[in-house]
Amino acid sequence: MLFLVLEYARPFYLAVLRLQMVIIVVMFLMWIAAKDRPWSGILTAHVLFFVLNLQAIVFSENNYAAYVTTRIMFGHLAIALGLSWVLANLSAFRKVAFAWLLVMGYLAVYGIAHNGQGPGAMVGDENDLALGCATAFPFAFYGFERLSGRRRWLCGLIVALLVTAIVVSFSRGGFVGLVAVGVYCWFASKHKIRGVVALVLVTILVVATASDEGRTGESYYDRLMSMFKTDEGTAEQRQFLWAVARNMWWVHPVLGVGGGNYTFLVGKYQPLDYEKPEFLERDWSGTVTHSFFFQILAEQGSVGAVLVLYIVWAHIQTIRRLRRRASSATGLPPDVQRDAHLYGGALGGAMIGLCAAGAFLSVAYYPYLWYFSAMVVALDTAVTREVARVESATTT
Questions:
Q1: Conformational region of residue 217, where left means phi above 0, alpha means psi within -120 to 50, and beta covers everything else
Q2: Can you give the pLDDT at residue 171?
Q3: Angle between helices 149-169 and 126-146 (to 10 degrees)
Q4: What angle do CA 124, 117, 179 make, to 5 degrees?
Q5: Which of 39, 2, 29, 27 is CA-nearest to residue 79?
Q6: Beta strands in 65-186 (DSSP E)
Q7: pTM of the prediction?
Q8: What is the span of the domain harbouring residue 154?
Q9: Which of 66, 125, 131, 267 is deepest in the core (most CB within 10 A)?
C-alpha cells in the first residue's frame, strides 16, 4: 500500500527519496524466501518477458536504452510477483485494492485541479492520467454495485471523480478506454438495469463536465471527433509512426529492436511513401509509437507480442474460471462469492480499459498489465483456497 502511494500519488518529499526501489528489492527478496508462492502461466510469461528485455541489453543498437527498460521491467516483475503472493488472501486483497482505488480517487481530484495533468512519472501528462482513471473505473463501478454502506457511496463518488478527470484531461485515448470499460462493465454486470442507469448518469456527467474549450482551443466534442479524421493531424502522424514500427518488426521480426530503442531508430526506419513534406523532409527520430501494441511489436518482436497477448488472454480466461468456480461452489461464504465477482469484474474491466486506451498510447512499460495480471493470479489462488476449505469442511 505504501508502494502504491509513492508510485501513484508521488508526495514530493517522499518521492524524491526513491523509496520505491527499496520496497521493490525487499519485496523480491521476501517473495524468494516465501514457501507458499502461487504460480501460473501468467507469471511464467512475466519472467520470460523480463528475460527478453535482458538479452536486448547486449544485442540492441542502443544498449543503455535497453538497460533502462530492463531495470523498469525488473521493478514491475518484483512487485507483480509480490502481489501474486501477498494478495493470495482475500482480506489482504480487499485492503490493497481499496487503497489503490482511494489513491486513484486522489489522482482524479489532483487532475481536475491541475487542468488534467497528474503529479508526474506514469501519471504525469493528460493521457497518462486518463489511462489510469479508465483502469480504475471498473473497481469503483463494481464497488458501487457490490459493496454496501459508506464504501458503496464512496465508490460512487470516485466514479464521478474519475469520469470528470478523464473529461478534463481532453484525452481521446482515455475516452476510448472509458467507453470500452463502460460497455464491459454493463455486459458483465449482475444488475443490468442498475448498470444502464449508472452508465446514463456517467454519460450525463461527461456532457455536463465537458468544457466549451480546452487547451488546444477546440471543444471536447471536436477533440473526440478528430479521432476519425485519419488523413490529417495527429491521427495521420500516428499512422506514420505505426508504419515505422512495422518496418522495424519486418527487419527484426523475432526479438525486435530492443526495449526503449524505437525512439532512437525512427529516422532509420521511417517510410518513404508518404507524400506530404512533413513526412519526407523531417527526421522523426525522438518520437514515440503512440501505441502499446506497435511499441511491443517493434521493440520486443513477435516473441514479445505473443507473450503479451498470452498474458491478456490468460488474464480474461482466469477471471471467467474463478467466477464460475465461485458461483458453482456449494457453501461458499457470501463475501467470498462477492469478492470473486467484484474483483474479477474489476480486473477484467481494467485490462479492457488498458488495451483500448493503450492502442493510442506508448504504455508498454507502464505497470498496469503486469500488476493487474498478477492480481488475477492472487485472486484465483485466494478463491481456490476458499473453495477447497469449504469442500474439505463439507467432506469432513
A1: left
A2: 82
A3: 160
A4: 95
A5: 27
A6: none
A7: 0.90
A8: 2-228+290-395
A9: 131
